[in-house]
Design brief:
heterodimer, A: 849 residues, alpha/beta, 5-stranded parallel β-sheet, 28 helices, B: 107 residues, mainly beta, 51% strand, binds siroheme, binds flavin-adenine dinucleotide, binds iron/sulfur cluster, binds FE2/S2 (inorganic) cluster
């Protein structure tokens, strides 16, 4: 049989899915595959388009590469638009003059953003939000703008508004309907959503029609509204809905829906049986599906139908509609909508739960007989989404008190409808169409952790909305198989960090070998050694370089300094609160000069001296300790810095002595070893110059006392800290911080920062508040006592090391000679040293010899 | 074999390493107390490109005993010198022994 020529117009997410399905089939060699894309690049993840703003790298969004396509023998025409379709001689032509015959044609042309016909909609800096090129243009314009307005308050409009906020602009949303996301949420949900979004500083203008856009007085544009009001802005993004891209089909006489869209049957065939349409351009049963999951299903059906025709497998493929339920996080706000969210079905009734203080709104819509769930709206907390969706999709009978499904579970009461209640056919991941049964099979076949289960089935690797549920299925299947969920620290200890911590405490274990003998196997590795070293230190605060502990430490802890790329070290003395006397500053300068060290002010309000060789560390520290400096623990998983602002002593706005408190806190907690590093800050008023809300522990002064924030961080995944107590006096503040830190030290995983610890805590912030503030576990006294004990054992590690001549012997590159490492070479840059590059080194060494 | 004494056994804290200069070569020597055994390999980390292996943590992975480079955490098998993450990388291995309380290397 000769090869069939399959031509796919459009290389979006759905077109790509179609190609993947053909490649995966046994008949793949029977097809010659050609695809055209109007866009200049191969398929990328449009669903995560907004992430382009966080990394500005189109490659991160790519879903495949040109090389991959080519290696599979697929012909790809990029930046080439198909403009002609002749259905009688079965050929297409492009804007670049390519002409090509096909056996089967697949239209996967997607949709285009609808721009309302408003006068001035074509002015400069008016954009749509659909492609990488659109985002590049928006990012460029944002550089010289202050305000951005989004026309359209639907799902995409709010996503665009988030992008405007992330670009650092003042954001506004202008919506014609009386509420935001009017398709997905009801009035109550919309009201709360609006409030939450306004709280984030976004201007929301509902029931607002834009009449025209003209030149602004202060900003580039002025949007004139029907009610006589106006808004000035520099950028406008239209996100007022999508329209199916059906131009090509229309021209060539294929059947088109009344309001657009290429009409398809259950096999995704258009009115010409040799032409299929899939994805957002297709109209099935008078409906357009603006989500990726239904598009993927169409790709599966259309490719299945083609293969079936070809190979006569007799399998039946048909598209039977798709669920449009959605769950998303918009600007950090959980929003979810399921089925008949507005409760329009005859006789339907609803239960509503609204918690104004915590800004949570939940509604479920049930059938007339109260037996089935037909819709739901969740705003502010969408944790029940997975479960509710399953109930709705599988038509499972509801429990007798359906309201329990959305009422907060007070004493952890279970609704009794866990994943076990779901049938095997239940679709768990809609993006990748993975059922519970498929997940169970994969688990049984050996995918026993989340990572491999995702890789094996694809589940949870799309929008991620199903990941909690996938995790639950995994755990439930594992226990059915009689397996335990593996949370072992590593191959040497069959315990979690938390369990080991308790063993050490209860059995008063003081060394690694003791713990290994009693509870572990083998010699240990780089995971358990430092982790246990840190736990021992949290408990007993022994000097870390004692013989029995030294083999546990990462090199940085062994040499009490941070190793740099060339094997030299950096030296970071503690400068509590960032306050330093001129004399101490002079000492730092003198030491740096004497030892020829590169000197830099760090992001943590202290000074870092780089380029010290091993043998130089003790004499450097001798000078520093003499001048009153202590180690800054920049190398340890321990308390780093307490950042401060000047506070009430000097600052005209300060309401309390933030610098004083910062110094006190830093001196109190310095030396505390913890699962990960700890950073603090204290600000003297709400202007927050010390950025306390981005720290593990943040304190802000108010007229009435200190406010305490916890679990924030910067770094790879920034998280704002949460407020846990307000208007504290200093004593209560310190007591609360003691409890917080000790509770974290006891229960967190290794290398888990406070932010991730809290995000993984069952019961979340409320639970943490209960434990710390209300002392619900009645461990407050114990935590405080433990902290006192640890803090009493504090000793500066450098001062201790300098006293021990034997320990100092280690600070030598060679154990058998005083020579130094000839491979370490520096060159000068901006009047200071830096490590030589490999080329520079070979030149330097050649010159010397 | 030409044995060079480099230091006393007690100069190497249990389960740590030191570096010795032997015939112009930088040799990383490790002492493991559980099996009272010494290992010696080159000190240069070909992945991190610096002389630092003696300062790494000792890690047992499955059956093999390794040093974890302090730079980018590559593991080098102490018996064979082969890098676990990238089999094309290998550091030299040397003979090492304890002799009358002294550590001796043949490089
Ligand atoms: C020196 C310094 C950069 C500077 O020149 O300003 C620095 C340098 C390093 N940082 Fe940092 N960080 C420095 C401030 C910060 C800050 C800003 C701050 O503290 O205000 C952050 C973000 C805030 C935060 O942590 O929440 C920061 C987030 C990180 C992270 C990411 C942590 C995270 O949870 O995502 C790492 C990686 C890690 O710890 O695993 C890191 C790791 C490192 C390491 C240890 C990387 C390494 O292993 O070599 C660098 C050590 C250099 C050295 O030898 O001293 N550094 N690092 C800053 C030292 C502050 C100090 O005085 O101690
Ligand atoms: C910002 C944003 C966020 C989104 N978030 C979500 C979400 O959270 N969940 C979700 O399910 N969906 C989301 N979507 C929708 C999702 O991206 C689409 O449903 C999906 O991309 C549709 O795929 P498609 O292949 O049908 O169309 P497209 O991805 O639009 O691909 C069509 C391609 O065909 C090309 N083309 C069109 N005509 C021609 C022609 N004549 N010749 C050659 N090429 C042509 C187009 O240039 C385009 O590259 C989001 C969309 C956007 C823009
Ligand atoms: S941001 Fe990266 S490169 Fe800069 S100091 Fe921190 S870890 Fe080093
Ligand atoms: S539902 Fe989107 S990833 Fe599973």
């Amino acid at each position: 049989m000769s090869k069939q020529k399959i031509v796919i117009v459009g290389n979006g997410m759905v077109g790509h899915k179609y190609i993947e399905a053909l490649l995966a089939s046994e008949q793949r060699n029977q097809f010659e595959i050609v695809t055209f894309s109007e866009e200049p690049r191969v398929v990328y993840d449009r669903v995560h388009l907004t992430e382009f703003f966080s990394n500005s790298d189109a490659a991160d969004l790519a879903m495949t590469t040109l090389e991959y396509y080519e290696s599979k023998g697929i012909q790809v025409y990029l930046g080439e638009k198909v403009i002609g379709l002749n259905t009688s001689d079965k050929s297409v032509t492009t804007d670049k003059g390519t002409e090509l015959a096909y056996d089967k044609l697949i239209l996967a042309t997607g949709s285009y953003p609808f721009v309302p016909p408003i006068e001035g909609n074509d002015r400069k800096n008016c954009f749509v939000y659909r492609t990488i090129e659109d985002l590049e243009a928006i990012a460029k314009a944002a550089k010289s703008s202050r305000i951005g307005a989004v026309v359209g308050g639907g799902l995409l409009g709010l996503e665009a508004a988030k992008a405007v906020v992330d670009l650092g602009l003042e954001a506004h949303v202008v919506e014609f309907a009386p509420r935001l996301m009017s398709v997905q949420v009801d009035e109550g949900g919309g009201k709360l959503l609006r409030k939450k979004i306004e709280n984030l500083g976004v201007g929301v203008h509902c029931s607002t029609a834009t009449n025209r856009i003209v030149k602004g007085k202060k900003h580039l544009h002025r949007m004139e509204f029907a009610d006589g009001e106006h808004l000035e802005t520099d950028i406008i993004i239209f996100s007022a809905g999508i329209r199916p891209q059906d131009e090509l089909a229309r021209q060539s006489g294929l059947e088109i829906g009344e309001r657009g869209g290429i009409v398809i049957n259950n096999q995704c065939q258009t009115s010409d049986p040799d032409i299929y349409a899939i994805g957002e351009c297709a109209l099935w049963n008078n409906r357009i599906f603006g989500l990726v999951a239904p598009g993927y299903q169409m790709a599966k059906v259309a490719s299945g139908h083609l293969i079936e025709q070809h190979a006569n497998t007799g399998e039946l493929f048909s598209f039977t509609g798709a669920d449009m339920s959605t769950k998303l996080k918009l600007m950090g706000i959980d929003v979810a909508s399921i089925g008949d969210a507005q409760g329009t079905m005859q006789g339907s009734q609803c239960y509503t739960y609204s918690d104004e203080p915590n800004q949570i709104y939940k509604k479920i819509v049930v059938s007339e007989d109260h037996k089935k769930l037909i819709g739901a709206v969740l705003v502010g907390d969408a944790s029940e989404y997975g479960q509710l969706l399953q109930l709705a999709l599988n038509g499972i009978d509801l429990p007798s008190n359906p309201e329990n499904l959305i009422l907060p579970a007070n004493d952890g009461a279970d609704t009794g409808l866990g994943v076990d209640a779901l049938p095997d056919s239940a679709q768990i991941c809609s993006c990748y169409d993975v059922s519970k049964g498929q997940l169970a099979d994969a688990v049984a076949a050996g995918s026993i952790d989340l990572g491999s289960l995702k890789a094996e089935t694809g589940a949870a690797s799309g929008c991620g909305g199903c990941s909690a549920l996938v995790g639950q299925v995994l755990n439930s299947e594992l226990s059915k198989l009689g397996m335990e969920v593996n949370t072992d620290l590593c191959e040497h200890f069959p315990y979690t960090r938390h369990e080991l911590f308790d063993l050490i405490r209860v059995e008063k274990i003081r060394t690694f070998n003791e713990l290994l003998e009693r509870h572990g196997t083998g010699y240990g590795c780089e995971i358990c050694k430092p982790a246990v070293g840190s736990m021992l230190a949290s408990h007993w605060n022994d000097y870390v370089l004692k013989d029995e502990h030294i083999g546990l430490q990462d090199t940085n802890d062994i040499f009490l300094a941070n190793m740099q790329k060339d094997g030299t070290y950096s030296v970071v003395p503690r400068i509590p609160g960032g306050e330093i006397t001129p004399d101490k500053l002079i000492t730092l300068g003198e030491v740096a000069k004497e030892f020829n060290l590169y000197t830099k002010i760090t992001g943590g309000q202290r000074v870092d001296l780089f380029g010290a060789q091993l043998h130089e560390l003790p004499p450097i520290w001798e000078r520093l300790v003499d001048a009153g400096f202590e180690t800054g623990h920049a190398y340890g998983k321990s308390v780093r810095t307490v950042k401060s602002c000047v506070g009430s002593t000097w600052c005209r706005y300060g309401v309390d002595d933030s610098a004083g408190l910062a110094i006190e806190l830093e001196n109190r907690y310095k030396g505390l070893r913890s699962p990960h590093k700890l950073k603090f800050a204290v600000s003297g008023c709400t202007r927050e110059c010390a950025e306390a809300q981005s720290k593990d522990v943040g304190v802000i002064a108010t007229e009435k006392g200190w406010n305490l924030y916890v679990c924030g961080n910067g770094g790879m995944k920034p998280r704002h800290a949460d407020l846990i107590a307000t208007e504290l006096d200093k004593k209560s503040l310190i007591r609360l911080i003691d409890r917080f830190l000790m509770y974290y030290v006891r229960t967190a995983d290794r290398l888990q920062r406070t932010s991730v610890w809290l995000d993984n805590m069952e019961g979340g912030l409320d639970y943490l508040k209960q434990v710390l503030v209300k002392d619900s576990l009645e461990i407050g006294d114990e935590l405080e006592a433990e902290m006192t004990k640890v803090l009493e054992a504090y000793e500066c590690e450098w001062a201790a090391t300098l006293k021990d001549k034997k320990k100092l012997k280690r600070f030598q590159h060679f154990i058998n000679t005083r020579e130094v490492d000839s491979d370490i070479q520096f060159v000068k840059e901006r009047d200071q040293i830096r490590p030589a590059t490999v080329e520079e080194k070979s030149q330097l060494i050649a010159k010397a010899s | 074999m030409n044995w060079t004494p480099v230091c006393a056994l007690e100069d190497i804290a249990p389960n740590t390493g030191v570096c010795a200069l032997v015939e112009g070569k930088q040799v990383a020597i490790f002492r493991i107390d559980k099996e009272e055994r010494l290992y010696a390999i080159g000190n240069y980390d070909p992945a991190g490109k610096a002389n630092v292996l003696s300062r790494g943590l000792i890690a047992q992975l499955g059956g093999s005993v390794n040093v974890t480079s302090p730079l980018y955490k590559h593991h080098y098998d102490l018996d064979s010198g082969v890098c676990q993450e990238d089999q094309t990388l290998k550091v030299p291995t040397y003979n090492v022994r304890q002799h009358g309380g002294m550590v001796e290397v043949a490089a």
